[in-house]
Amino acid sequence: MKITIDNLSGDGAIDYTLSLDGSVAPRVERVLNRPSKLSFSLRANSNGFVIPANGARVCLTKADGSFVFTGYLVQAPELEYLGVGEQGPVYQYKLAAESDEVLLDQKALTNRAPYVAQSAGWMLRQLAQELLPGKFDTTAVEDLDAIASYAASPQKKFSEHAAEIALAARGCYRAVNGALLFAPVGASSYPINESDADFSPAGLTLTQRNVVIDDVTVVGLEEPQAYVRDYFVGDGLSLRFYLSQQPFQQSYLALIDEEYAGTALDPTTWILSDPAGALSLAGQSLQINGGAGQDGKTTASFIQPIELGGALELQHGDVSFIGASRGVIGGLYAGAIATTKCLAGFQVTPNGSGSNIQALINGAASGPVITTTPGHRYLFTTYVYSREVYRSGEAYHSATHPAGQALGGAAVPADIRLVLEVQDINPSVPSSLLAPAIVLYDDLMANGAGFCTYALVNAVNMQCSIAFTYVTHISTAEVRLALPNESYATQLVESLSEGGQCAIVGSTTLDFYPQYVPPLNALIVASYRGRGRGIAEVVNSTKIANLASGPDDGVRSVVRTMKVPSARTQVDCENAALAILDDASTAAWSGKYETWSDFLPGSAEDMFPGDLVMVNVPSRNAMFSAVVRKVSVDLRDPANDRGMYDIEFANDLAVPLGHQEEEATRLVSLQDSPARLSTEQVGAYYLANLTGAQITEVSSTTVQVDTGLAPAAGQGIEVRIHDFGWGASNDRNLLGRFTTETFTLPRLARTQNYFLRLYDSSSPPKYSRYSAALHVDYPL
Length: 780
Prior knowledge:
CATH architecture of the largest domain: Sandwich
Low-confidence stretches: none
CATH class of the largest domain: Mainly Beta
Strand content: over 45%
Number of helices: 5
Structural class: mainly beta
Number of domains: 5
Distance between the termini: 90 Å
Oligomer: single chain
Shape: flat
CATH topology of the largest domain: Jelly Rolls
């Protein structure tokens, strides 16, 4: 072994091998998805001995040059006085180092929106690049599975984020010699077989815990539940309308908040493609002067996908045109940046010395045209409304569902409403700042994409500047208003200063601003998702039956609260429960194996946490696979590259590897109690939700309902006054069962609720997971 220390004083790495204290063996500790540690002691053995500096770089290598440890001293040497030698006082210097990611741990992340729909490897590479651009080699970072959403908090260190990301993808990371490595757990496997000549029976300790699980309840986060539509009528005076439920709310943390204050686009926010050098920053704005002359060549795009879930406001910016332009501003693209793949954006085309602005929908120009006026400024804004807040599920792993074979992670289909508007500002007319925006497009897009590439600019040849860009989530409530005998128009639920017409106050009331009081007989529809706790119970029916005996019903229950990966919905909770039951199909084994480096399992050169050991010791009735969780190496014979390895391992039932639980438990109301599903029923138990259900006509005694879905043979639609009691045996609050898409319901009061679910003829019948909730508040 050779140990070198670079005190970062300009003298380079110094060989301290001969100064190692022979009475204390250097010790390397490696723990799964945590920084490695090295502890060792030195003795001053010459007049030229240099005391290592705090923060110095340490490398421990074998004779063949392979690295055992690389990192940095994390504290000043601890001195121990040993006495007086021939050359004066003699000290022992105790040193402690941590692996290379300590450099990343010393940096704080900036506040930013969560990563969405990106691979675990991409997230690790991005975190390292944001903290120390270009410092770490990430070519050995594998992608592994996509993670639905991950929030990188500035309050956590890089190594903590890396551990959570690795856990969510069932991967393992480590940092060695300025490089990050990331691979699936079990990428390397080694046998511990008692028939091997090098097997050490005395070095093996095994523990089998009595852990039996066949009934798992998983408690998740607050989730969007009922598909609610509230109907009101304006009386010309009222500003406040009372919602029937509390709308589910997303985080309002901005996805993009860019004011172009620097000298170049921030590479942690934007991906720049600019072969013609047309894009630059000047005067606190993005300047666009020309382009490559081809579609999709000169672009500034957001570094990660935009999730088209819940409600989004995309303020593409305050744009000043200085010449005829061609290109697309604020485009949402399904894949590559190309006009034909633009789901929604603002198409700009030349018109003499000015330009025309028109909505671009599914690659085609649509709606009215605005012609630019010299000296005017134009505010471009896109609003996206989806009844599905999350457009993909979380992915969960187990020993039998490793990286690449996750449970969950499915795409969530949804229709999306797109609203594109432009505000024309004349600087010489201050009132134009408050003038209503011109709506270029307002319509539904069936089965809209779940995730899009967002390109602020796709310049073929543009002459303009953009002063800011701001993208954020807004209230998930979609409010639409129709004057008598006119079509519905979307009303922005936002602060008045941001151009809103109404706001949701106290989570239960819809308040219009005085400037926008709904006229007499105006029809108002507020569409949103209700809220409730995500929770699921899944059982292994076969295992329960095998354990049942006499008074023992065979049920072995646990309740888990997910932290990583988070369980954002009931579907996530079900998949998390499946993963836990997967790991509960074997016995809970853990153990240790001590051996010299010469006799490592499978003739391994080295071993690391995340490796797989296959234990085959029939004399102890032990035949199982487990993941190495910790490796400690005492270098007792460093001169000959020999050390004693202490290898700790466990399978997922003994020490969970596919998830991390929260310590605090959440109280779950009886109303939140889910259906008890078998493992076979998960994914096949619930029928489709009636997401498109709406009221089409209201009279003093009846309402006409269109559910948006025609029941198939053997199916029907059950309607109740309250959102409980579902089932053929309960008629207490039943309003009727129907086999047609449209039907008439009685109206008994000014305000009335109707809850609808699809059901079938199976025994017991299956139902929709969530209700469609229709609420009417019309004068009689």
